[in-house]
Amino acid sequence: MLLPPRQGKPGLVLPETARQILIIGANGAGKSRFAGKMLSLPDVDPGRVFPLSPLAALYGAFDGNAPAGSIDALYADTVLRSPLFTSNASPTPPASQSERLLVLMIHEEVVNLLRFKVEGGSESGKSLPDTNLDKVLDLWREMFPDNGVLRRGGELLFTNLYGGERSQLKLSPGERLVLYYFGAVLYAPDHAFVAVESPELFLHPSTLRRVWDRVEALRPDCRFVYVTHDLDFASTRTAATTVWVRGWSPETDTYDYDLLPPDSQLSEELYMTILGSRRPVMFIEGDDTRSIDAKLYPLIFTDYTVKALGSCDRVIESTRVFNSLSGFHHLDSCGIVDRDRRSAQEVEYLRRKRVMVPDVAEIENLLMLEEVVRTVASAHRRDETKAFSKVKAAVVALFRSEVRQQALLHTRHRVKRTVEHRIDGRFANITKLEDHLADMVDAINPRAIYEDFCREFHSYVANEDYASILRVYNQKSMLSQSNVGSLTGCGDKQSYITAVLNLLKAEGSSARRLRVAIRAALGLSEMTAGVQSED
Questions:
Q1: Spatial CB neighbours of 360, under 8 Å, sequence gap ≥ 6
Q2: pLDDT tens-digit series, residues 60-110
Q3: Of 185, 238, 245, 484, which residue is 20 to 30 A from 211 by alpha carbon distance?
């Protein structure tokens, strides 16, 4: 299937095997317009396009001129013209499409029941066949197992654990939509393109995958076209062929779009974040919601889409892979990982790969930078010089008490890296490998490394070299043990962290001081908003 034309290029070809078609893009990129264009091309039979819209389901007024095969057309042809109603008692169409669909299914069930009785009922030896309504209600109860459904006088009443009965109108929007999706898809034409706008709307993320998996299973003959910018939903369509719409030209009625590479080695969710934002991307460590990284870096790099990936290895690999695909997405990308105990050579290697490494040991140490401490103290009307002087003295004292422990940790890291490098060699036989390992301790000489670190760290203490201590000192309790929160007028550790974040959110001169200090710690110039390669 040929897709709409691109700007200055012919349209791309959609694989005929694509059953899930995911159209993604930022707000205003032209996703819905693209989907409409795609489904109006000569390759597509207009009689086999079946739209599903959550807004139409909940709020759509009756359309007496709806195209044949649509829910409203079926309602008009089946219910309004039914011999069960006299011309004087034709029902007024319900206010929403989901209600009209339910009336349609109830009407069909009544017709089937009457036909069954006319044909002899149970005495004929036949059983009453399952109806569309039976299928829908069974699936709905599967989605909401604590709910029940009662049939009373041609009306459906819904119950839950708390008792009482309610009509469809008293269900939540999400519950009503699940009924609608399960029912509506049963009326789609054979081998239809089922076009779904905002499939995530009103549905809880925990139910998204199950609902749409069940909908697709109801109609294995159909192809589902989803238009969305929602990451939770997009990541559930693991078999989708993804079309990324970047923009639309009204002058030429052409689109800037691409097909997402299926073998790109990046998760679908990462692509959704990146492609949906149309901004350069920064991969960071930590958790999406709880880590300091995820709270701090988006406020420092406001022009970037910041994505937390957890481990430093994932940050490094995702940065490498995404930059290798720059010909596809045309977006800049970089990463930030904690320095931890990396050597200068390791740091330089990562920076050449566009993975930034701060000049402090870990993310918490960024909040202990001299200029950060001074800025927070000043914002709380404290003497910033006096506050920093006390914080500095506390940090130097903490480091002094842990010099040997910190030296040992750095030695372990250095030895581990050296062993990993040396063990990668090729050996002709096991004896050669044994000889190599036997000589390794003497060759590496961990005691000498340890003593060098001890001398280096003692010099930082003697010289009160605060910046160097922050660069090598991995101690997450530093924020609380240094009493930086109280000394800057904030209170405890968490209040201090919150103060830094709030100053950045508020913008102004304090935010500028903080951004300059933290960008400088990443090796960036004062006015640089993005990350520059250090090749």
A1: 339, 366, 368, 369, 470, 471, 521
A2: 888 888 888 899 999 988 888 877 655 445 567 888 999 999 999 988 888
A3: 245
User: Mind listing the pLDDT tens digit for each residue in 451-475?
Assistant: 999 999 999 999 999 999 999 998 8
Radius of gyration of the chain (CA): 32
Q: Where would I find the beta strands (DSSP E) of 250-389?
A: 254-259, 281-284, 305-308, 333-336, 355-356
For residues 15 and 241, the answer to whether their CB atoms sit within 8 Å is yes
3 state DSSP class of 334 = strand
Examine the pLDDT at 282 and tell me if it is beyond 90.
no
Find all residues with CB under 8 Å of 73, minimum gap 6, and list them: 66, 67
CA dist 324 and 265 (Å) reads 11
Question: Could you tell me the end-to-end alpha-carbon distance of the chain, in angstroms, rounded to an integer?
Answer: 44
Q: DSSP string spanning 471-516?
A: HH---TTHHHHTTHHHHTTS-SHHHHHHHHHHHHHH-HHHHHHHHH
Residues 294 and 288 sit within 8 Å (Cβ to Cβ): yes
Of 196, 324, 186, which Cα lies nearest the Cα of 264? 324
pLDDT digits (tens, 9 = 90+) for 347-356: 888 988 889 8
Any idea what the Cα angle at residue 521 is, between residues 515 and 526, rounded to 5°? 50
Element (H, E) at 215: helix 205-218
Residue 526's pLDDT band, with cuts at 50, 70 and 90, is very low
Q: Which residue has the tokens 């990541």?
A: 235
Could you tell me if residue 334 is left (phi over 0), alpha (psi between -120 and 50 degrees) or otherwise beta? beta
Give the strand pairing for 355-356 and 333-336: parallel
Confidence of residue 409 (pLDDT cuts 50, 70, 90): very high
Range of weakest confidence among 126-130, 223-227, 290-294, 384-388: 126-130
